Amino acid sequence: MTSAGTVLVTGATATTGSRTAARLVAAGHRVRAAGRRGAALPGAQPVRFDWYDPATHDAALTGTDRVHLVPPVGDPDPAAVMLPFLERARALGVRRAVLLSSSAVPAGGPAVGQVHQVLPSLFDEWAVLRPSWFMQNFTGAHLHATTIRATGTFATATGDGRVAYVDADDIAAVALHALTDTDAPNTDLVLTGPEALTHDDVATILTEVTGRPVTHHRLTVAEVRHRLTESAGIPPQFAALLADMDHAIAEGAENRTTDTVHRLTGHPPNDLRTAMARETGRGL
């Protein structure tokens, strides 16, 4: 790994952004932790940053040579704000950009897929992290986690479809390498856990780990869309995108595993039991 330069981490208080910033600091790299009020993370320089306020962009970018991009949450068209930012980043001397996307969204696909498609034309050094769904969706503030805590249930329209959930700690470990290895990946990296599970399997594992019954309820795509809009307050366009992803899972789109975590970090990805046992101490 190289130790030169400064890394700007957007979304530095988010699930993967906070973990990535912490790993960068621990490895001895200079880090700017970006958030709307600055992100107070040990060892990092807090910097105020808002995707929707271009007046915050130059100060965050000046003196930065690498940037970790966590897209604005819930925006169905993040390219509208991200692409002008990335053009400005290149003009100010950023040489490497690592984008957090999704295994469900290819280059040129909806939402962040539009940013993925353009990224290689903006930077000679780049990577797109395309993780499967996060194991941390069952902890913290995610809708699945909050309904599990409140009712012992969670609901999807995935049917018998399988997902190789990935630990956010493993995503951050890959991000560290993508940002700091001497040679940039210059490709997209699909990140998964070690096994593809149905959501009934997930419920069984959560029951075993927590000692509390957890049940997976099966909904239709329309029911999921309504639930996300009415109960979670998610904008209809983005709720429809998420519901359609459930349908894609039901059709087998996420039934795969990759060796990317092991290949880039040297350690196998954590399984769901391991991650949930660790996260239980954080308030599952």
Summarize the structure.
The chain is 40% helix and 15% strand. It is α/β, with parallel strands linked by helices and 284 residues long.
What's the topology here?
Blueprint: E1 6-9, H1 15-26, E2 30-35, E3 45-48, H2 57-61, E4 66-69, H3 79-91, E5 96-100, H4 113-122, E6 125-131, H5 143-151, E7 153-156, H6 168-180, E8 188-191, H7 199-210, E9 215-218, H8 221-230, H9 236-250, H10 260-265, H11 272-280
Parallel strand pairs: 1-2, 1-4, 2-3, 4-5, 5-6, 6-8, 7-9
Q: CATH H-level name... which superfamily?
A: NAD(P)-binding Rossmann-like Domain
Low-confidence segments, given as residue ranges, are: none
How far apart lie the N and C ends?
35 Å
Total count of strands: 9
CATH topology: Rossmann fold
Major sheet description: 7 strands, parallel
In order across it, which strands form the biggest sheet?
A: 3-2-1-4-5-6-8
Element order, helices and strands?
Answer: EHEEHEHEHEHEHEHEHHHH
Tell me the name of the CATH class: Alpha Beta
Shape from CA axes? globular
The CATH architecture would be 3-Layer(aba) Sandwich
Question: Beta-strand percentage?
Answer: 5-15%
Radius of gyration: 18 Å
Mean pLDDT: 95
Structural class by helix and strand composition:
alpha/beta
What's the structural domain tally? 1
Tell me what the structure shows.
Helix 3 (79-91) packs parallel to helix 4 (113-122) and helix 8 runs antiparallel to helix 9. The chain is built from 11 helices and 9 strands. The strands form 2 sheets. It has a 7-stranded parallel β-sheet, with helices on both faces. A two-stranded parallel sheet has the order 7-9. The protein is an alpha/beta fold and 284 residues long. It has one domain (6-195, 254-280): Rossmann fold (3-Layer(aba) Sandwich). It comes from Streptomyces virens. Residues 128-251 form the NmrA-like domain. Residues 260-284 are annotated as: Disordered. This is NAD(P)H-binding protein.
